[in-house]
Amino acid sequence: MATQYTHHEHLGHVVFIAAAAAIGGFLFGYDSSVINGAVVGIQRYFQVGSVETGFVVAIALLGSALGAWAGGGLADRWGRTRSMQFAALLFAVSSIGQMLPFAIWDLAFWRVIAGFAIGMASVLGPAYIAEVAPPAYRGRLGSFQQLAIVLGIAVSQLVNYVIARLAGGDVNNDVWLLQAWQWMLGACVVPALLFLLFALNIPESPRFLIMSGRTRRAREVLAEIEADDVDLDGRISEIQRVLRTERVPGLKDLRGPAMGLLPIVWIGIVLSAFQQLVGINVIFYYSSVLWQSVGINQSDSLLISFSSSIINIIGTAIAIALVDRIGRKPLLLIGSAGMAVGLATAAWAFSFAGAKGASVALPDPQGAIALVAANLFVLFFALSWGVVVWVLLGEIFPNRIRAAALGIAAAAQWVANWLITVSFPALAEWNLPLTYAMYALFAVLSFFFVTKWVKETKGRKLEDMG
């Protein structure tokens, strides 16, 4: 009984460490969603059109792709925690920069810096959590990344709502010397400093410590995070054996026979791309605009957007409960099927839209059906692809290439995210039902991809991957 008890004491410590590392995910959710509330304000303040605004919204994602790509290398050079501290500092500085821009290009510059920091955190979090979590809990702890992202989205929507209320409902009104939208962007500095504080207080990953020759410290960290009945010397020599074949992995280590890359790297890239190509971020970046386009007024559309965030959090909680029980692959398949149904239904409902003055209106049952279908899509995404992709990216790569491969896969995710974000306004103007049908098609394709290519990783040690 004693081992059980002490093991759970350790588990509390591991949960704390994993949660601290996942705050990077919170920053990602917060920043990507905060812009939703500030868009109109930026447009009016700088008197720019929708093209420039779209560019400023989406450019952070390109910064993130760069950060994700560089993050793996920095993590292997400086260590996981030092790299997190750097990302947190960058993010804090960029929040102040975004809050006080003197021109639209200046705002775009700070958004690229913020994006770079988030991209780094998006790689560091899952890699670090996978390296400190005991195999039996790794799926649940890996899910913290996505839980943090959805919490970040929800909190930023609440903060935006409160700031907009203080400004009397207009984001261009002044609140204490600055316009409301500037405060929205500046508020990001709070979670950034929190992330920095936590990153200064969590131990370095045992795998990195062993990699850099600090075996005694690695042993201390392993003693803190592994169950009491685990043979620590055995674990250390096992990690050393795996690392012996390792150098700091570079892009050349990812080369392989399949179109220039190892097959497992392609699997990571395609998983990442599908996570975005189903169009999930359209719901979060443009949701209030979307609901207004089907005849819902502005304040109600903000509330509907917030309710989607709540559904997102519920779905994520379901995934965390199931990912180590039923496994990664079944969850992905359930999600693909559910998303395809939700998206296809939304596409069908939007095809009934008729013009009503300047806006679009949906007739009676279809309007309600579109709303339910969109939220069904969010639920199925959250309980599957939202969580499981991050868990798998932390797990599927062999130790030797994990950081570098995760960097490439996460960069692919940011690029896919950028493509969807940049193309949606034009596609929706051209044909909204067809746009949703296209996302539905990607959901169907993702089902077949998982069936054929994705292997189950539930309960396997990281040293056995590859």
UniProtKB/TrEMBL annotation:
Tell whether Transferase is among the UniProt keywords. Answer: no
Question: Which source organism?
Answer: Nonomuraea insulae
- Name of the molecule in the record: Sugar porter family MFS transporter
The record's comment on protein family reads:
Belongs to the major facilitator superfamily. Sugar transporter (TC 2.A.1.1) family.
> What UniProt keywords are attached to this protein's entry?
Membrane, Transmembrane, Transmembrane helix, Transport
Looking up NCBIfam families in the UniProt record yields: SP
Principal localization?
membrane
Q: State the membrane topology.
A: Multi-pass membrane protein
Alphabetized InterPro entries for the sequence: MFS_dom, MFS_sugar_transport-like, MFS_trans_sf, Myo-inositol_Transporter, Sugar/inositol_transpt, Sugar_transporter_CS
Q: Which Pfam family, any one of them, does this sequence belong to?
A: Sugar_tr
Q: What compartments host this protein? A: Cell membrane
Q: Where do transmembrane segments lie in this chain?
A: 12-30, 54-74, 86-104, 110-129, 141-163, 183-202, 261-286, 302-323, 330-355, 367-393, 405-428, 434-454
Q: Which Gene3D superfamilies match?
A: MFS general substrate transporter like domains
Show where the Major facilitator superfamily (MFS) profile domain sits.
17-458
